[in-house]
Amino acid sequence: MKITDKNEILEKVKRCACSFENASEDLRDDMEFVKEVLKIDGSALRYVSDRLRDNEEIVKLAVKTNGWALQSVGEKFKNNREIVWEAVKTCGEALQFTGEKFKNDIELVLEAVWQNGKALQYAGEEFRKDIKAMKKALLYLKIQTLCGQLRKQEYEVNVKGY
Length: 162
What we know:
The chain is mainly α and about 160 residues long. It has ten helices and no strands. It has helices spanning about 5-15, 25-30, 30-40, 50-55, 55-65, 75-80, 80-90, 105-115, 125-130, 130-160. Helix 3 runs parallel beside helix 5, helix 7 runs parallel beside helix 8 (about 105-115) and helix 8 runs parallel beside helix 10.
């Protein structure tokens, strides 16, 4: 039996976005309620009604809170630069779900790599052939590595007392 209580669903979604799957069809098609859910976790988009999953405002909200939501949208949104930009800003690895043209978009790929260095593996062939772009991407990776090492040292000093 599907859950119809909005507060119950919101509490469950706070623990796991997949809980939205248990919401009634009416709740999954309620524009205002869906917005509340997606503000908590955009990955709940996969459980939203087809009608709302085809709504640009809904998709934009979802990818702003969780870039992984891009995997749950149709091609028209995967080929919408504004939506893709929002997705890679919150999750660089969302680059893997974009239309092919964005995998070679230097500005977009660099934003994705800046957010998460692992995104570089999803860059297109044209991007990889661009020496200047690759140098910048590798610099971003180096910065992330150094920042990670500094955070680890800070953790060891502050928490472990080394």
